[in-house]
Write a structure and sequence with these properties.
Number of domains: 1
Shape: globular
Strand order of the largest sheet: 4-3-6-7
Radius of gyration: 12 Å
CATH topology: Immunoglobulin-like
Number of helices: 1
Helix content: under 10%
Order of helices and strands: HEEEEEEE
Distance between the termini: 31 Å
Largest sheet: 4 strands, antiparallel
Strand content: over 45%
CATH class: Mainly Beta
C-alpha cells in the first residue's frame, strides 16, 4: 500500500466525544468501516458506508482502532473517544 493512499484519508476530530468525520480522496466512494478495541474486539461495523459521519456516541471512552476498507486497500487509524 502506498503512502499517498494513506495520507488521502483523514479522520477528524480526534479525539472526539460522539461523531467522526471521514474525508477521502475523490474516487473512494464505496467503503466499509470497523472499530476495534485495543484488545481486538470489534465494537462497531458498517458495510457500504454512504455517510462520511460515524456516530460513535455509544462507545465507552478510550482508544480504538478504526479500520477503513476501500477498493484501493485498507487503512487502520487510532482514534480516541472522550
Amino acid at each position: 500500500m502506498d503512502n499517498d493512499f494513506i495520507s488521502n484519508i483523514t479522520v477528524y476530530p480526534n479525539p472526539t466525544t460522539s461523531y467522526l468525520n471521514i474525508q477521502m480522496e475523490t474516487g473512494l466512494n464505496s467503503y466499509s468501516v470497523s472499530i476495534y478495541t485495543t484488545l481486538g474486539k470489534m465494537v462497531y461495523t458498517q458495510n457500504k458506508c454512504n455517510s462520511e459521519i460515524l456516530d460513535i456516541s455509544r462507545l465507552q471512552p478510550g482508544a480504538y482502532y478504526l479500520k477503513i476498507d476501500t477498493d484501493k486497500g485498507s487503512v487502520v487509524k487510532t482514534i480516541l473517544k472522550k
